[in-house]
Known about the structure:
Layout: E1 5-9, E2 19-23, E3 28-32, H1 41-47, E4 48-52, H2 58-61, H3 64-71, E5 77-82, H4 86-95, E6 108-115, E7 118-125, E8 136-139, E9 149-153, E10 157-165, E11 169-177, E12 180-183, H5 185-190, H6 198-207, E13 215-221, E14 226-232, H7 233-240, E15 241-244, E16 248-252, H8 259-269, E17 274-278, H9 286-291, H10 297-306, E18 312-315, H11 325-337
Parallel strand pairs: 3-4, 4-5, 5-6, 16-17, 17-18
Antiparallel strand pairs: 1-2, 2-3, 6-7, 7-8, 9-10, 10-11, 11-16, 12-15, 13-14
Amino acid sequence: xxxxxxxxxxxxxxxxxxxxxxxxxxxxxxxxxxxxxxxxxxxxxxxxxxxxxxxxxxxxxxxxxxxxxxxxxxxxxxxxxxxxxxxxxxxxxxxxxxxxxxxxxxxxxxxxxxxxxxxxxxxxxxxxxxxxxxxxxxxxxxxxxxxxxxxxxxxxxxxxxxxxxxxxxxxxxxxxxxxxxxxxxxxxxxxxxxxxxxxxxxxxxxxxxxxxxxxxxxxxxxxxxxxxxxxxxxxxxxxxxxxxxxxxxxxxxxxxxxxxxxxxxxxxxxxxxxxxxxxxxxxxxxxxxxxxxxxxxxxxxxxxxxxxxxxxxxxxxxxxxxxxxxxxxxxxxxxxxxx
Length: 339
């Protein structure tokens, strides 16, 4: 089964934190945090229309300028999601530049910040020099036990968040596919049907909840010709598709190890296929980690085991451990396995 999400760290384990997630079979990507991101290059940055900010310390937000720069002059809408104060932070960034020559540019930046029981949303248009619009306010439903709330709901996936204590709110995120759709190419071949773009449309119909009797016309291409053919969704689903559990990724940065944070992280990451968790410190320096509101590698591994994740990736190592990256990974791995 080919996973729907392909994810990787933006930088190495000692670099600025961030995870880039490519959504397969589309030109879409998601980006978690905006640290230094030159390594991604313009093409990948342009695919990331949805960007999830943990908090706006410099190593998590300095890459905002690079994203705006590459998006200027293009008909894009950037959507940023994050903690209280994000609208003011984006406004301050934008006010640091002069915009007298962008009045014809189509770029739009939409910012949503989540605070207790409400969502505040503001929109910045290049066409008017990125003036701050009057924020709109919407209710937010927060789970009373876990603190989890939904920041993005898409037919294919949801992104949930939880606020962690970093002496300021630091958001952790979980990306979860609603369910996974696998296409049986052998059965398609036996039915004389080609693999192609029409299957992306089929998946969208299924994710959108179209009924089994939904009829659609697909444009099919093979080596010799192209043709239109009508299908019934239920027939395609039963003959060629397998529906299974969706993929889940979790992303946690900049949080102290305490009872409240631990419970929220474990609830967020529960049964994730891949858990990206910061580990700036070795456990020998646990007191320093606590004072700096960060985690140790052992604590990351312990929570990964408790959350029953399939795999753990640790990152965001402190430069004090330069040359000791393998030791940090080993400590996290040992704790994950219960050693």
